[in-house]
Design a protein that fits this description.
Blueprint: E1 2-4, E2 8-11, E3 14-18, E4 23-29, E5 35-42, E6 47-55, E7 60-62, E8 71-76, E9 81-86, E10 95-103, E11 106-109, E12 113-118, H1 142-149, H2 154-189
Parallel strand pairs: 1-11, 3-12
Antiparallel strand pairs: 2-4, 4-9, 5-6, 5-10, 6-7, 8-9, 10-11, 10-12
InterPro entries: CD8B (IPR042414), Ig-like_dom (IPR007110), Ig-like_dom_sf (IPR036179), Ig-like_fold (IPR013783), Ig_sub (IPR003599), Ig_V-set (IPR013106)
Transmembrane segments: 156-179
Subcellular location: Membrane
Amino acid sequence: GFYTNLLLTQTPEHILAQTNNKTQILCELKKEHTGVYWYRWSQGRQHFEFLVFSNTLGKVTYGANVSQDKFSVHEARSHSSYSLHISRLHPSDNGTYYCSVSQSSQLLLGSGTQLSVVDVLPLPPKTTQAPVSKKPVPRITKSKAASRKGPCSPLVWIPLATGILLLVLGLVATAHRLYRLRRRLWLRIH
């Protein structure tokens, strides 16, 4: 039987690719294994197809009628990570791809990657940008303002002076409150 499990991490979940391009699916393994199997589930044909097996020694076995030019397996990080490369994509490559390892007479499956191959990729949704108006909106940044009017630009010193003034007023009010409290305590003691 087939079981999905947590010993395999398969990424990404979905791939949308254009005809004649190439793509890859990554499978990371957290346990000892003898090699990785790759399968494709075809929704249209209701068919589970064995594509390729790659053992830890790098020997590759292909399924019946599977093109070796189209599918290749690359191994990385000492047998813990495998990627399936699919080239010259065609809409017939659509399906859900699974990486799999054999563990005590069971096949453990990855979570699956759904591949959709299209002739034309959809355009990204247009962000609502304001149309370029005829009246240019003056955008003044601090650096531009400073370079125009020197380091004492009103854009710089007005907020600065306001902040300092508020700080001083706050300090004066606090000092006055403390003085009155001290005086009251002094009067109470004496």
